[in-house]
Amino acid sequence: MTMILITVFVALIFLITILILLLIAIKTKYSNLLKSIRSNEVRRGITTEQWIPLLSQYPWDPSNFHFIGNPIDGIQFEEDKVILIEFKSGNSKLSPKQKSIKKLVENKQCEFQEIHLKMSSSNQEFLEIN
To answer: Given its phi and psi angles, is residue 121 left (phi above 0), alpha (psi -120 to 50 degrees) or beta?
Structure first.
């Protein structure tokens, strides 16, 4: 009788071990699937963002939009202003970096810098910032 109980106990331990290993494998596959879905969503979002300026509802001339991608989607160049643009859909919100950029613009902490690459006779390069 004791031998039967030991055999049953060992069999139960073996089955529990197999179930735990199966659960770990399922969790790993599920985690990988979620990563793949998120990656596809990001790729789809980046592709979609590049086409938004071509929609008829886009309020500016799409040929003046230049896609950047990160940390903002792009820049719209108009005759009287330059507009930093971030496209959002659904419940998405500005990232901390995007909020920081928005605040800099609102506080008029933006600059235009012209940088010249200078070449000397010894082929040394250096930058001159005006």
So the answer is: alpha
Can you tell me which residue has the tokens 């250096």? 126
Vertex 38: Cα angle to 36 and 41 (nearest 5):
110
- Assigned domain for 106 exists: no
For residue 20, the Cα-to-chain-centroid distance in whole angstroms is 35
Q: How many domains does the chain have?
A: 1
Longest Cα–Cα distance in the chain: 98
26 pLDDT more than 90? yes
Indicate the SS3 state at residue 83.
strand
Q: Is this model's pTM higher than 0.85 or not?
A: no
pLDDT at 75: 96
Which residue range is the domain that position 91 belongs to? Answer: 2-97
Tell me the average pLDDT across 43-66: 87
